[in-house]
Amino acid sequence: MSRLHFASALLPSGWANDVQVVITSGAIAEVTPDVAPAAGDERRGIALPGLASLHSHAFQRGMAGLAELRGDSTDTFWTWRETMYRFALAMTPDDVTAVATQLYVEMLEQGFTRVGEFHYLHHDRDGSHYVDPGEMAARIAQAAEASGIALTLLPSFYAHGSFGGAAPHDGQRRFICTVDQFAALMAASRKAIGHLPDANIGIAPHSLRAVTPDELAAIIPLADGGPVHIHAAEQVKEVEDCLAWSGRRPVQWLLEHAPVDRRWCLIHATHMTDEEISAFAATGAVAGLCPITEASLGDGIFPAREFLAAGGAFGVGTDSNVLVGVTDELRQLEYGQRLKHRQRNVLSGGAGRSTGRTLFDEALAGGSRALAQATVGLVPGARADIVTLDAAHPSLAGRSHDALIDGWIFAAGSGAIDCVWAGGHKVVEGGRHRLRETARQRFNAAVQRLIA
């Protein structure tokens, strides 16, 4: 058992002062506001619940910044994808462990305490299958265990190169499965994460480009009640190709043909009509937004104002992991709306409301729903995932309550986090993860070899 005492903490009921939190077996056992610190309490300033990065491709952290040289033709998502394939084809299992560990260390240092790993690097470099179908899933599990981040593993089903069951191209050979192979992969993946506390599993049909309707129907039961994530409507070309294949837009097709409900998370969903926005919001499914990656890849701007007005739920993810941070994703989400609508505080939710607080609350609720976490936040029964901010940071000075979140998201950059507890273990102190140097050395060695 451990006891923490915070001068100020964001509870489900709102901000409270002088809050004591008791942690037992990795979970919050008691939360008591308005009490003086007791002997033995660890005393900190400002406490927030950790957030989830609901969408991550861990291996892509290794190529961050390597696709910023323009080629001879127009540079787009589709040309970036070729760079990604080349990098993915070079990685060994040890490389994946090193890269994912570094990523998860960075996530924890930046306020993410759970990751939804949309995992599709399944096979060996030549496309042959490992003896253990869960070899690469086990590497993700090793990284999560070493770093302390909670893991929701989302093995991705990828069978085709484009709509209508088109044959995959050679760059996708490490991803490709039949339905039967994917069932074996799911069983092996469950085994790979079985020893991790608080880990869970869902499925991730990669996209309507990569699965046929029959395959989608066949794999959904493999989620066994867990979350279902799918990329949808990220690019205009994807929408156009889906219309040519089916006469429907991607989100429209899913809403008409798949059992989309609160278990589902539609990643990106950038390009939707008004009718799709309303229908998507009504399902209770979560929009998995990755604003940094969506900006990096030139995807477009999600219709967040309209989606929230329709009652939609969203969470945030780090996707390509070109830049990792809670504040980066939330700030980019709001700033994209400001650029689109030429207004300020677009997503605040109403007059007199804090934009930072609204973004934070929505991302906490949507991320937990998308990753099937029934209880989150600074509340008894939740996993003890706690982030503390440095009250002496210049962008937090003189502020209290919601103004602290506004200062953190919109002004503080990456230096305001002091400590992070993940599953009750203090993994970050003074802004530094306990494995920072070891993880960095292994990551650097792996990436130097891959680039060479």
Automatic annotation (TrEMBL):
EC number(s) on record?
Answer: 3.5.3.13
- Outline the extent of the Amidohydrolase-related domain: 46-426
Q: Which InterPro entries match?
A: Amidohydro-rel, EF_Hand_1_Ca_BS, HutF, HutF-like_N, Metal-dep_hydrolase_composite, Metal_Hydrolase, Metallo-dep_hydrolases
Query: Has the keyword Transcription regulation been applied to this entry?
Result: no
Q: Which UniProt keywords apply?
A: Hydrolase, Metal-binding, Zinc
Keyword Metal-binding applies: yes
Q: Which cofactor does it need?
A: Zn(2+)
Q: Name one GO molecular function term.
A: formimidoylglutamate deiminase activity
Q: What domain of life is recorded for the organism?
A: Bacteria
Family annotation (CDD domains): Met_dep_hydrolase_E
Which class of enzymes does this protein belong to?
A: hydrolase
Question: What name does the UniProt record give this protein?
Answer: Formimidoylglutamate deiminase
Species name for this entry? Bradyrhizobium xenonodulans
